[in-house]
Design brief:
Helix content: 25-40%
Structural class: alpha+beta
Strand content: 15-25%
Low-confidence stretches: 1-15, 57-69, 324-369, 374-381
Number of strands: 28
Oligomer: single chain
Largest sheet: 12 strands, antiparallel
Length: 685
């Protein structure tokens, strides 16, 4: 059966339910198809009593219970509720609410039944949205004032606490001092919001509500709003807080929500099982965060906003959110006097039908209209609005910090690649490892691409968080780019390396430097006591690696490291310390010895059979004196510019002597008037 208003089910109870001044409840909203209203109504009545604002005692009789029908319920027991919502010319409250910003507020004036006048009461309500991360719940606060003070409430004049207190106390003479103080402070905050945001009437919602709630508890409250109609309030007369009663309204100014709206408000209690069953059976369809204010404000202010509520994408709401143009001259007043307390005619629609309104609101361009104006009109017609997400992303301060950390991580990866590229380039410049050049370039380009991608994703995610978009945060490109860059670097390295190896094989195995790599060569065929290499030189023409050791010069095969060593020459009385090959000629450097007090330079030539070396020329290095000479090097070209190179010979103590490359033996003998090309006379150099 139908529960009573009072929890104790006393028929003679005269207690009246009054709305509390502050609400802290979680609200879930649903849409209901009209044909399923009966199932919903009976379920609600079984859970909590039917409640009508301002009425007392039992609301139904046993006879009513036997023949309760929807029409009778809405006619006799539902309440007409009207709310005027306020917003600024720039729609700042709308924009904050649809973005779900922390602290977003909504201000409205509400009344029940006919529009109040004079000393009748108006309920001012301030809703404040709080995100979960702030540790506070969303709250609705209510202050009651007289209708005659509404004009002063909307004036852009700052109030003092005394001003607010006097207005509240006049409307609530029996209010306790503590409650009066809270109500006055709340009213003062509301008026401050009006002044700071330049708030004015924006839209009105009108509907009939059936409420289900125990009069002594706010734990569970169920409301069903039917015939929800949104009325454009933007052209309310100057100084008025809403359209006066009797104002004739065109059909284009009145839009009806296509579904009844069912709300479940919980204050610490759990969702009743019977309602869970209705959800499972599809009787009620969840409409999370549905808002009458957002619906009406968006419908009549499409030129001032960029984002529509998510239900604008529902085909049933197409008639509400279609673009319409409004004229400021479509309002006509038909009331006796603005200050009269007599009952005024209700707000009614004009004779213009809904089908005619859009046609009349779009007029052809005037012949005198400039091309610029016509362009702007076309631009406005093509303006596209973004649809807000149904389940917006939860954005907290730590979300932005996480985005910054992600950007830093990707930047670190890019810098790591750039560091590797710098190291590779440095090694190439120092060691002449040519195959590393392309690898360094590939890594450098990849690091730049990765850095550009990181900064792009950083700002993209900031935009997603600001719009509370729940999608688009996954980065599918970054990991692919990082993997591709590393893979490309490895591929380039391997390709260049293989090309170099193939080139070396095609050149017959020429010697080349390999940093950090040693090749073990055989010394088979020579006593270890005679083999003390002090220098090495490469004879490219004969594919030999020449080494100087004591009085000998030995030869190793370049192609076969394990081939037996060959003794090429033994120069008695010398201590060979250096070898070099200059323009195909071999020179050996000997320290001062028993046979010479100064260093000696020997030019070695191959014998005719090509198997051994012989001394072609020998020179005393007088300029070196008796100092020890440990090394020799050949540098092509000289300061004289005659095409001959120079020999740099160690003088000891960190000093070098520079000698011009001596002419070949045959040329030297010819210049001295001799004809013996085999002469080994000692000359000074």
């Amino acid at each position: 059966g139908i529960r009573m208003l009072e929890a104790d089910d006393k028929r003679d109870s005269e207690g009246k339910w009054e709305a509390p001044s502050s609400f802290e409840r979680s609200t879930t909203k649903y849409w209901v198809e009209s044909r399923k209203l009966t199932d919903l109504l009976y379920t609600c009545i079984q859970e909590v009593p039917l409640l009508v604002y301002g009425k007392s005692g039992r609301l139904t009789t046993d006879k009513d219970m036997e023949s309760l029908e929807d029409d009778k319920l809405w006619k006799n027991l539902s309440s007409k509720i009207s709310s005027v919502y306020f917003d600024s010319p720039s729609m700042c409250l709308y924009k904050d609410r649809i973005a779900r910003k922390e602290g977003a507020q909504l201000l409205r004036a509400r009344w029940y039944g006919q529009k109040p006048t004079g000393d009748e009461k108006v309920f001012l309500e301030l809703k404040t949205h709080h995100e979960k991360w702030v540790g506070a719940t969303s709250v609705k606060e209510r202050a009651t004032i007289m209708e005659k003070h509404m004009a002063a409430f909307l004036e852009r004049v700052k109030w003092s606490y005394a001003d607010a207190e006097s207005i509240v106390s006049e409307a609530n003479p029996k209010m306790k001092k503590e409650d009066l103080s809270k109500a006055a402070s709340l009213l003062l905050r509301m008026h401050k919001l009006v002044v700071e945001k330049d708030l004015a009437p924006c839209v009105r919602s009108v509907y009939r509500r059936a409420a289900f709630q125990a009069s002594d508890s706010n734990a569970l409250r169920l409301t069903l709003d039917k015939d929800v109609t949104m009325i454009d309030e933007r052209s309310a007369p100057q100084g008025a807080w809403c359209l006066p009663e009797g104002t004739r309204i065109r059909s284009s100014m009145k839009k009806r929500v296509p579904f009844p709206v069912f709300e479940v408000k919980l204050a610490g209690s759990e969702m009743p099982q019977s309602l869970e069953t209705l959800i499972a059976n599809g009787v009620i369809i969840e409409a999370a965060k549905f808002s009458k204010f957002l619906t009406g404000a968006a419908a009549y202010n499409s030129d001032k906003i960029k984002v529509l509520p998510y239900w604008a994408a529902n085909p049933a709401f197409k008639g509400i959110f279609q673009s319409t143009q409004h004229s400021s001259s479509i309002y006509t007043q038909s009331f006796a006097s603005s200050g009269s307390n007599s009952s005024a005619p209700p707000i009614v629609a004009s004779e213009t039908t809904a089908r005619e309104a859009p046609m009349k609101s779009i007029s052809p361009p005037s012949p005198n209209q400039s091309s610029c104006d016509r362009f702007l009109v076309c631009f406005r017609k093509k303006k596209q609005h973004r649809i807000a997400p149904q389940k917006p992303a939860r954005v907290e301060p730590k979300s932005y910090f996480a985005n910054e950390r992600t950007f830093i991580q990707w930047s670190s990866s890019a810098l790591w690649l750039l560091s590797v590229a710098a190291i590779v380039a440095e090694r190439e410049s120092q060691d002449g490892v040519t195959h590393l050049t392309n690898t360094g370039i590939a890594l450098s380009v990849g690091s730049i691409i990765l850095l550009i991608h990181a900064i792009t994703m950083y700002f993209r995610r900031i935009k997603l968080m600001q719009t509370r978009n729940p999608n688009g945060y996954v980065d599918r490109i970054g990991p692919i780019v990082l993997t591709a860059v590393i893979f490309l670097g490895v591929v380039v390295l391997l390709v260049d390396k293989s090309k170099e190896i193939n080139a070396n094989r095609g050149s017959g195995g020429l010697l080349r430097p390999e940093n950090g790599k040693c090749v073990l060569r055989s010394n088979e065929g020579i006593s270890a006591l005679l083999y003390e290499p002090s220098d090495v030189a490469v004879d490219e023409e004969n594919d030999l690696l020449l080494t100087a050791s004591l009085t000998h010069v030995f030869g190793h095969s370049k192609k076969d490291p394990m081939a037996p060593i060959r003794q090429l020459i033994d120069i008695d009385g010398t201590d060979l310390e250096g070898l070099t090959v200059a323009e195909g000629r071999i020179f050996a450097l000997s320290e001062p010895s028993d046979t010479s007090s100064v260093p000696m330079l020997f030019e070695l030539a191959w014998q005719e059979d090509g198997g051994l070396l012989r001394v072609a020329q020998q020179f005393r290095l007088e300029a070196n004196g008796g100092e020890s000479s440990e090394g020799i090097a050949y540098v092509p070209g000289n300061m004289a510019g005659d095409g001959r190179g120079s020999l740099y010979i160690d003088k000891g103590l960190g000093k070098l002597n520079l000698y011009d490359l001596p002419p070949p033996a045959a040329q030297q003998n010819a210049e001295e008037g001799g004809d013996d090309s085999e002469s080994t006379a000692t000359r000074s150099l």
